[in-house]
C-alpha cells in the first residue's frame, strides 16, 4: 500500500478534545444566542432579489460625492435610496425599494438615470436590475424552502443510514452552523440575495460530507470496542479522522480564501459566507455533531447485534 507523502497528523495523535467540551458548549451557546439577537435586532440586509425594487451599478468618471448623489435621488420621490461604493471609488451601487403606488418602474428608472447623469454626464450604467414584489416574494419563499428541505433530507438520510440519534445530531449541527453564518450576515450587513442562499446550501452539502465520514468511523468503533465508554470512544474517533478533516477543510479554506481576496465583488457575499461556514463547520464537526450523541443516548451497545453479546472484543486500541 502506498503511504502518503505528507502526514498532517501522526498516527499516534491522541488529543483530549473532551477536556475542552464545556468551553465549546458555552462558546456555541454564546455564538448562537448572539446570532439570533443580531438577526432579531439588526435584521438582514435583503437585496433586490428578496426585498424587490431596483438596483443600479454605475461607474463615474471620478469618485462622486455620496451625499450629493443621495440628495438628488431622494428628491425624486421614488423611495429612500441606499448608496454604497464597491470595487473602486468610482463604482457605486444604488438600491431603491419598490416604487410607490402610482409610479411606473420604467418611469422611476428613467428619473434615476437622468438625475445621476445631471451630476456626471459621463457616468456609465453597468447594470440595472428590477425585481417586482411578486417575484421577490417567490424567490424568498423558494430559497427558504430549499434550505429547509435540504436540512430535513440530510437528517433523514443519516437517520436511515445510521440511527435516529445520528440524524438528530446532524440536524443540530446544521442548525448551529447556519444560525452562526446568518448572524454573521446580520452583523456585517452584507447584502443577502440568491448568492447567500447558494452559500448556505453549499455549506449544508459540505457539512454532510464531513459528518458522514465521522459518523461512519464512530459506528465502526462502536462495533469494534464494545466495552469502551462512549466518551473516550468519541474522542478516539475524532483523533482518527483528524488528519482527513485538516487536509480536506484546509484545501477548501485556501481555495475559498483566494476567491474572497481576489474574486470579483459580484460573488463576495457567496465566498465570504462559505469561508465563515467552513471555519464554523470544522469546529462544529468536532464538538457539536459528535459529542451531541452523548446526551442522545448513544452507547457501546448501540450497534451491537443481538446474537453477539458474548463475542470476544477489545476494550481499547493498541498503540
Q: Nutshell version of this structure?
A:
The chain has 319 residues and is of the alpha+beta class. Helices cover 58% and strands 8% of the residues. It has ten helices and four strands.
Low-confidence stretches: 308-315
Element pattern in H and E: HHEHEEHEHHHHHH
Percentage of β-strand residues: 5-15%
Task: Give the biggest beta sheet.
Answer: 4 strands, antiparallel
Average pLDDT rating: 78
Spatial arrangement of strands, main beta sheet = 2-3-1-4
Computed structural class: alpha+beta
Distance between the termini: 20 Å
Helix content: 55-70%
Key attributes of the depicted protein:
single chain, 319 residues, alpha+beta, four-stranded antiparallel sheet, 10 helices
Describe this structure in words.
By secondary structure, this protein is of the alpha+beta class. The chain contains ten helices and four strands. It is elongated.
Topology of this protein?
Blueprint lengths: L20 H21 L6 H4 L1 E7 L6 H9 L7 E4 L5 E6 L8 H15 L4 E8 L1 H29 L2 H25 L5 H31 L5 H11 L1 H21 L5 H20 L32
Antiparallel strand pairs: 1-3, 1-4, 2-3
Amino acid at each position: 500500500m502506498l503511504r502518503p507523502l505528507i502526514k498532517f497528523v501522526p498516527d499516534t495523535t491522541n488529543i483530549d478534545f473532551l477536556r475542552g467540551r464545556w468551553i465549546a458548549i458555552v462558546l456555541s451557546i454564546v455564538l448562537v444566542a448572539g446570532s439570533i439577537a443580531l438577526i432579531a435586532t439588526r435584521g438582514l440586509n435583503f437585496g433586490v432579489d428578496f426585498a424587490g425594487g431596483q438596483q443600479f451599478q454605475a461607474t463615474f468618471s471620478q469618485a462622486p460625492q455620496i451625499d450629493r448623489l443621495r440628495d438628488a435621488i431622494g428628491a425624486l420621490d421614488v423611495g429612500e435610496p441606499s448608496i454604497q461604493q464597491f470595487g473602486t471609488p468610482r463604482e457605486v451601487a444604488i438600491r431603491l425599494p419598490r416604487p410607490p403606488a402610482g409610479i411606473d418602474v420604467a418611469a422611476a428608472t428613467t428619473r434615476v438615470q437622468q438625475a445621476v447623469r445631471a451630476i456626471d454626464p459621463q457616468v456609465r450604467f453597468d447594470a440595472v436590475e428590477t425585481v417586482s414584489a411578486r417575484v421577490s416574494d417567490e424567490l424568498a419563499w423558494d430559497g427558504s424552502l430549499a434550505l429547509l428541505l435540504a436540512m430535513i433530507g440530510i437528517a433523514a438520510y443519516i437517520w436511515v443510514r445510521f440511527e435516529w440519534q445520528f440524524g438528530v445530531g446532524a440536524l443540530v449541527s446544521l442548525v448551529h452552523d447556519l444560525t452562526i453564518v446568518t448572524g454573521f450576515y446580520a452583523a456585517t450587513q452584507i447584502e443577502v440575495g440568491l448568492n447567500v442562499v447558494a452559500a448556505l446550501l453549499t455549506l449544508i452539502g459540505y457539512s454532510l460530507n464531513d459528518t458522514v465520514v465521522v459518523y461512519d468511523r464512530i459506528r465502526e468503533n462502536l462495533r469494534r470496542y464494545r466495552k469502551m465508554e462512549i466518551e473516550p470512544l468519541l474522542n478516539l474517533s475524532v483523533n482518527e479522522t483528524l488528519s482527513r478533516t485538516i487536509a480536506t477543510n484546509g484545501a477548501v479554506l485556501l481555495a475559498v480564501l483566494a476567491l474572497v481576496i481576489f474574486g470579483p465583488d459580484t460573488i463576495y457575499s457567496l465566498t465570504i459566507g462559505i469561508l465563515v461556514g467552513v471555519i464554523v463547520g470544522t469546529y462544529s464537526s468536532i464538538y457539536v455533531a459528535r459529542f451531541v450523541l452523548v446526551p442522545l443516548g448513544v452507547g457501546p451497545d448501540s450497534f451491537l447485534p443481538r446474537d453477539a453479546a458474548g463475542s470476544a472484543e477489545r476494550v481499547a486500541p493498541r498503540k
